Write the structure tokens for this entry.
Amino acid sequence: MPTHKKIINQIILTNLCIALVIPFNLVLDSKEYLGEFISYKIFFSYINLFILINIIALIFFLLINFLTYKFNKRLNKSFLLLVTFIFLWIFFNGIFFPVVGIHDPFFNLNYTIRLRYILLFKIIFIAFLLFYFEKSKYKKIFYKFISIYILINFLYLFSYVIIFNNVQNYSKKIQFFGKKNLIVLSLDGISGLKMNKTIQSDEAFKNILKDFKFYKNVTSSWPGTRNSINAELNEKTKSKHKNKKNILNDKNFNTIVYGNYSIFVNNADHAVLEGRYKNYGKSYEANIFFQQVVIASLGRWGTPYLVSFFEQRILYLSVYKNLMNLISLEFSNQHNPFNHNIYTMVHLHEFDLIFDGSKFDNNLDNVIRMYHFGFSHWPIRIDENCNEVKELKIERYLQEEIAIKCLSKKIIKFLKVLKKEGIYNNSLIVLKSDHGKPNGYYKEHPYSLNINNSRYWGYGRYKTFILIKDNNRIKNEIEISSKHVFLSDLANTYCNYLKDRNSCDQKFFGNNLSLDEKAFKKNKYDIYLPNNKSTFLEDEGFTKYEIFNDVSLLDSLKLNNIILNQ
């Protein structure tokens, strides 16, 4: 049976895996997150977390060990075996074989019925290892090998972080505009249906939009943000040259983008990542790392249920915020959004920071500024006054309207700042969303229809909106159009504003949404639809169809024999 010394070593190594080895291995496995989290400030904060959870774990171990030994020695032996089982479970699943069977560093939390059988198999496998090596003459070699592997891994991570320590550049002037601007404000997951309803019912909102043309019948070619933006910039959802040829990388323009638009720029100096607008301090960095990396790592050995427990409960506790302050040794930092009424949605905080600081710079010309904010993403966790909440305790089909009440306040603020700073009139301003909401958020027909029995995606997910105002456009009231247009049309619209029409029309087939609708052409567009019930965002789960803009989306789906049901 295991000795107490060996068990204590196992507890220490288990905590080392949880706090440092598994999370930082995920970072190294992911090119997307590599630069953002390779920081000795974060690493040393999590060394402090490792020390703290070790102290707590060892106290609990000594207490439970003492009580079980006094009460029943057989129970004590079972308890010690349980500790060893947890050690092996976290080591093998956390580092090598995620319980859900998917090794992707961050998107490893899909949990189907089939994968539950894999989980059962792994429980049996780890139990077999435990009982086999407890009675084997190779017991010491087995546990020494695991211990040495974890320690070498830790030393490698430590040296890597020290050598390649990332220093964030916070000097990007995304809040500065010039004599001619293309400004795009993209808001996640809002349908034309619900936006139209708010515009019609909110006079103040409708009035601030009087210079805009509102396209309420807009189709997205993909039900997710990244490929939706790809279509917006490149016209094609599946573009092989998504970065090289889009307008954001044209050296003739002063371009800085925020959020998911950052994926589509080649030069990191032209992108502000979500949550990276300013230096908010060490406690903020520790908190962001926990939310974006550590929680994902918990799913590898603790199942997605542990992930949802942390996301829905732990992150909203004041004790959690205090813990992040403690491990970073930074207290009362008023620049840290998490020390205010922000729990997870830093972009909600950054919206105000960016646009409160908006300025006109006479030395700038041909400026591109694009922002994608995700605080209206599902599940919706903002109220109508833009306060972050744990959940909205109302029916799901009413929640998007609550989000738009918040967004309308943000849009009003945004446009008032542009007017005040002399930016509004000399700008093409586009307000848009990337897609609508998933199944369950709509009661209205046909928005409530599922596509091909998909668990997630329906008609409403593909319907969004565009609001567009050309420079020096002054109107008495908003123009509302029912014309069927596509987010893909924006590629040609952007190009025509900043370049000559002939070159744009040669490159893009889509319509320029700034023109009169009489000039619009009949075009064929790609749309990607789910081909099975469990499709989420994986490419192989979608089939490409071609549809025309002179036919409604609903009729196009019917013409292609797509299964539509409630």
